[in-house]
Amino acid sequence: MADKITLTTKDRWAVCWRSTFLQGSWNYERMQNGGWTYSLIPALKKLYTTKEDRAAALKRHMEFFNTHPYLASPVIGVTLALEEERANGAPIDDVTIQGVKVGMMGPLAGVGDPVFWFTVRPILGALGASLAMAGNIMGPIIFFVAWNVIRIAFMWYTQEFGYKAGSKIADDMSGTLLQDVTKGASILGMFILGSLVNRWVSVKFTPTVSTVDLSKGAYIDWDKLPSGAEGIHKALSQQAQGLSLESQKVTTLQANLDQLIPGLAGLLVTLLCMWLLKKKVSPIVIILGLFVVGILAHVAGIM
């Protein structure tokens, strides 16, 4: 009896690294099949020694495949386990392997978007952008390093989970696990995005509501301040005591809105954009519309 062929950690790492390029040859006919097959080549070379067996393995994996590029990892792990069993004589045919792939890729595709695109990336992007806007070079560095560490770690450990679970993973995915994960990730993503609205969506109305002349002693009298550093020091001291910098108190529409609900205008604009997207309005049209409205409102002195 021939020795059992086993994929080593090095072999599985080679597959994991290649899966980074899963969408490198994406096409409209079979989508990720080229990148999928490319990822499996190190394992297939180890498991099958003859030219005919390797060609047959490559051919069966060139079938249609499409899922979230990171959530393909557990499918890869299960496929590696099935191919390993087949190479060691188990009665596993092409239909079984393709069936497991198709059965897993659909549900997993719905998990990747809310977890990665709508949760992890916005959080890391907001952190990196905040540091970058403050002039800190660590902003883009933290985003790049953290994103790739999370991505690679997730891909490796989920691939290992799929490899160790083998064909039994299909049973684990048959319940409500994926639905619960998707729902929770979506809620978390919407919460994070909602908290960022007030920070990233800025709408300011410039019309003046009222102008009130302040009484003597309520504002800094700049003409009576001494010159030089002494005058600056005295002005800062008076400002710290609550004196106004101007002799008039100007109240704008934006100040009244901020007293009512801070960030209300930005929230309304965000909700409007979401409603338009729900109505199938093109994002390009929405962006151009915001540009036009903003420019016209600024010219008219409204914003």
Summarize the structure.
This protein is mostly helical and 303 residues long. 66% of the residues lie in helices and 4% in strands. It folds into 2 domains: 9-199, no CATH class; 208-299, no CATH class.
Describe what this molecule looks like in 3D.
By secondary structure, the chain is mainly alpha-helical. It has two domains: 9-199, no CATH class; 208-299, no CATH class. The chain has helices spanning 9-18, 33-47, 51-60, 72-87, 94-133, 138-165, 169-172, 177-200, 228-240, 253-260, 264-278, 283-299, and strands at 208-213, 248-252. A two-stranded antiparallel ribbon has the order 1-2. The protein is elongated, with a radius of gyration of 30 Å. The chain starts with 8 loop residues before the first helix and ends with a helix. The relative contact order is 0.08.
Helix amount: 55-70%
- Secondary structural class: mainly alpha
Number of strands: 2
Give the CA-based shape: elongated
When the domains are counted, the total is 2
What is the H-and-E element order?
Answer: HHHHHHHHEHEHHH
**Mean pLDDT across every amino acid position:** 80
Number of helices: 12
Strand order in the largest sheet: 1-2
Question: Gyration radius, to the nearest Å?
Answer: 30 Å
* Euclidean distance between termini CA atoms: 82 Å
- Enumerate the spans where pLDDT stays under 50 for 5 or more consecutive residues: none
Strand coverage percent: under 5%
Q: Biggest β-sheet: count, sense, barrel?
A: 2 strands, antiparallel
SSE layout:
Blueprint: H1 9-18, H2 33-47, H3 51-60, H4 72-87, H5 94-133, H6 138-165, H7 169-172, H8 177-200, E1 208-213, H9 228-240, E2 248-252, H10 253-260, H11 264-278, H12 283-299
